């Protein structure tokens, strides 16, 4: 999190007010992500595919963030489709919550600027003092960005800032769009679990005037869900774009059929057929789970694994950093996990429509853990 210091001097005192910026060039800029499939922070972006009600908690100092002199919000983000509204949601130092609406989400890249003192406060049941920027204390204990509720959208957040002065005209400024032609995607057709899937993308570009930097999105799709995703910055002035990316696969993956796709977020063009990819795992069906049972032990129920009692201490996970936090718990000796996604994050249990199910969310979670 970069702090740009604004110094204001007078005869008797010097007031230091720090604008606050989240640029996502550091994983620690994000505390957690929720309801974003294949969520990750890399190369200056926070990204993922939305399920219902996606949101991103941003990291704050331990003492919280005083926002009495930081009323202006600036967010630059990409959404693959329109959505209802860009909200901010926060918990104040006194434990009260605030939910403020700014502007409707536009498709494509856009910069959203709002004076949070004039936001529409709509948290159900919130007291009057909670319906204002920063609440009664003006100090935030948590702070999150909600980029619209709608599902099945690619969301990319490039930057977030809270500033003393507006960074530009308030409202929504949509990014210009260029065009591309002759797109092509190729990928490793057959891959063994544990190896990488190499994806190659090429096209000819006509960028909008004044825009020389583009963002190539690589995705490995399973059904309609994103299994892997990566963003790569390219020079649009070159005219001809050629980019590659290699997706790692888990040695614990059951495998299956995927489709590799790619495109440039700043450009419109003809749809490009995805490249089919089949991941196989020769270990499937050859490895047996250890025998487990629950029975009485020293006066109470105990879990036995391979006839040895194991302390039934579990790590409960909810939102963000899947794999990273599980690894931290495993390093302490806790290797039994439970998760909320079956009941709250994906309450449809994979159901898409009559007779149609997509379990790729679960597959991705389990192979990661």
Write the topology of this structure.
Layout: E1 2-9, E2 14-22, E3 30-42, E4 45-58, E5 65-66, E6 72-79, E7 86-92, E8 97-101, E9 108-115, E10 120-121, E11 139-147, E12 154-163, E13 171-174, E14 178-187, E15 190-192, E16 196-206, E17 213-222, E18 225-235, E19 240-248, E20 256-264, E21 267-268, E22 275-280, E23 292-297, E24 300-305, E25 308-310, E26 315-317, H1 324-331, E27 337-339, H2 341-345, E28 351-353, E29 356-357, H3 360-368
Parallel strand pairs: 14-21, 15-22, 26-27
Antiparallel strand pairs: 1-2, 2-12, 3-4, 4-11, 4-12, 5-11, 6-9, 6-12, 7-8, 7-11, 8-10, 9-13, 14-16, 16-19, 17-18, 17-20, 20-22, 23-24, 24-25, 28-29
What does this structure look like?
The chain is mainly β. Strands 1, 2, 3, 4, 5, 6, 7, 8, 9, 10, 11, 12 and 13 form a 13-stranded antiparallel β-sheet that branches. It has a 5-stranded mixed β-sheet with strand order 15-22-20-17-18. The chain has a 4-stranded mixed β-sheet with strand order 19-16-14-21, with no helix packed on it. Strand 26, helix 1 and strand 27 form a beta-alpha-beta unit. The radius of gyration is 23 Å and the shape is flat. The N terminus is likely disordered.
């Amino acid at each position: 999190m970069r702090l740009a210091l604004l110094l204001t001097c007078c005869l008797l005192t010097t007031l230091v007010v720090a604008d606050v910026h989240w640029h996502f060039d550091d994983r620690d800029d994000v505390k957690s992500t929720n309801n974003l499939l294949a969520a990750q922070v890399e190369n200056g972006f926070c990204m993922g595919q939305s399920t219902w009600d996606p949101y991103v908690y941003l990291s704050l100092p331990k003492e919280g963030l005083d926002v009495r002199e930081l009323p202006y919000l600036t967010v630059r983000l990409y959404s693959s489709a329109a959505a209802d509204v860009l909200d901010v949601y926060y918990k104040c130092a006194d434990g009260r919550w605030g939910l403020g609406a700014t502007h409707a989400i536009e498709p494509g890249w856009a910069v959203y600027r709002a004076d949070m003192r004039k936001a529409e406060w709509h948290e159900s049941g919130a007291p009057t003092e909670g319906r204002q920027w920063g609440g009664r204390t003006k100090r935030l204990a948590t702070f999150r960005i909600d980029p619209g509720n709608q599902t099945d959208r690619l969301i990319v957040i490039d930057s977030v800032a809270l500033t003393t002065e507006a960074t530009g005209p308030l409202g929504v400024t949509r990014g210009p769009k260029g065009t591309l032609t002759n797109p092509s995607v190729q990928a490793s057709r057959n891959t063994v679990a544990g190896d990488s899937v190499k994806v190659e993308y090429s096209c000819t570009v006509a960028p909008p005037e004044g825009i020389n930097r583009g963002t190539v999105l690589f995705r490995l799709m399973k059904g309609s869900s994103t299994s892997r995703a990566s963003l790569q910055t390219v020079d649009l002035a070159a005219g001809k774009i050629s980019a590659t990316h290699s997706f790692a696969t888990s040695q614990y993956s059951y495998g299956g059929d995927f489709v590799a796709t790619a495109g440039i977020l700043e450009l419109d063009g003809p749809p490009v057929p995805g490249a089919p990819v089949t991941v196989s795992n020769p270990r499937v069906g050859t490895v047996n789970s250890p025998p487990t049972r629950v029975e009485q032990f020293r006066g109470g129920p105990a879990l036995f694994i391979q006839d040895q009692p194991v302390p039934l201490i579990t790590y409960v996970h909810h939102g963000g950093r899947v794999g990273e936090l599980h690894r931290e718990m495993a390093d302490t000796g806790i290797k039994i996990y439970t998760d909320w996604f079956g009941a709250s994050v994906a309450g449809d249990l994979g159901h898409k429509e009559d007779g149609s199910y997509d379990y790729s969310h679960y597959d991705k979670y389990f192979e990661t853990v």
